[in-house]
Amino acid sequence: MPRTTNKQKKLHVKKGDTVVLTKTITAHGGGQNDRAKGHQARVLEVYPKTERVLVEGVNLRLKHTKPNQTYPNGGRIEAEKPIHVSNVMPVDGSGNPTRIGRKRVEDPNTGQSRWVRYAKTTGEELDS
After folding, report:
1. Which of 15, 53, 62, 85 is most deeply buried (CB count within 10 A of its CB)?
2. For 77-112, how does the pLDDT look when each residue is reduced to its tens digit (9 = 90+)?
3. Residue 92 CB neighbours (<10 A)
4. 3-state SS assignment for residue 87
5. For the chain, which domains are there?
6. 49-70 burial by CB neighbour count: b if 16+ within 10 A, else e?
7. Which residues are bridge partners to 118 per DSSP?
8. pTM confidence score
9. What separation, in Å, do the N-terminal and C-terminal C-alpha atoms of the chain show?
10. Per-residue pLDDT tens for 11-26?
């Protein structure tokens, strides 16, 4: 059934999550910047519209820049580029990759309920 009220795409990762790569990401030209399957890193940014994530130290590419205030001489700067969200899996409390489920949790004090993500392997909540 399509969403009627909240049209925003829901991804299984959030900014700040620790994730593990499910696929080897090869850098342009190969070599030291390749990140193998199983590499753990932190999510820096999430782009829900394009279903991509920016992961720390993964998919480093050379970017040619003109001189500016940050780089007075310009030149070639190594920068992280986004990868598709299907290439990463969140890590549970024990450090193993896990699938994500969503469940509704009710606060006993206020009676308010909210959606939280939980690890399918251990059942623990990932959102605090």
Report:
1. 53
2. 988 999 999 999 999 988 899 999 999 998 888 889
3. 20
4. helix
5. 11-91 (2.30.30.30), 93-128 (no CATH)
6. eeebbbbeebbbeeeeeeeeee
7. 101, 125
8. 0.80
9. 29
10. 999 999 999 999 887 7
